[in-house]
Amino acid sequence: MVPDPATVVNITTMVVVAEGENAYFECSISANPITPDMIRWSTKGGNVILRENQQFTENGRSLLTLFNVTKQDSGTFECEAYNGILDPDVKTAKLVVLCKYLKYTNSHTAPYISTFHR
């Protein structure tokens, strides 16, 4: 069996939540074989996000939860797939945290909006 390089195949591209809520991101990779240490979440500035905020599933998915977000958490996050073959593959996701005092003008608009990119 010839190992395949790790690549990000799906990522949540944007999450919009109100201040004080939790934000959820998903990143799926393709590789052969797949192990949990192949996926790493970080901020755009390079700060690695703690493992206790991540959940790895056996099929190459990593779920990232940011608890009780504040406006300071807004920004770009990166999901990196790397298994030592070729260069790491990195895709980005954006978090927008709305002021908790913001009123929703459309009652049909959910306070949690997420988009998933394939």
From TrEMBL:
<dbReference type="InterPro" id="IPR013783">
    <property type="entry name" value="Ig-like_fold"/>
</dbReference>
<protein>
    <submittedName>
        <fullName>Nephrin</fullName>
    </submittedName>
</protein>
<dbReference type="GO" id="GO:0050839">
    <property type="term" value="F:cell adhesion molecule binding"/>
</dbReference>
<dbReference type="InterPro" id="IPR036179">
    <property type="entry name" value="Ig-like_dom_sf"/>
</dbReference>
<dbReference type="GO" id="GO:0098609">
    <property type="term" value="P:cell-cell adhesion"/>
</dbReference>
<keyword id="KW-0325">Glycoprotein</keyword>
<keyword id="KW-1015">Disulfide bond</keyword>
<keyword id="KW-0472">Membrane</keyword>
<dbReference type="InterPro" id="IPR051275">
    <property type="entry name" value="Cell_adhesion_signaling"/>
</dbReference>
<keyword id="KW-0393">Immunoglobulin domain</keyword>
<dbReference type="GO" id="GO:0005886">
    <property type="term" value="C:plasma membrane"/>
</dbReference>
<dbReference type="InterPro" id="IPR007110">
    <property type="entry name" value="Ig-like_dom"/>
</dbReference>
<dbReference type="GO" id="GO:0005911">
    <property type="term" value="C:cell-cell junction"/>
</dbReference>
<dbReference type="InterPro" id="IPR003599">
    <property type="entry name" value="Ig_sub"/>
</dbReference>
<feature type="domain" description="Ig-like">
    <location>
        <begin position="5"/>
        <end position="97"/>
    </location>
</feature>
<dbReference type="Pfam" id="PF13927">
    <property type="entry name" value="Ig_3"/>
</dbReference>
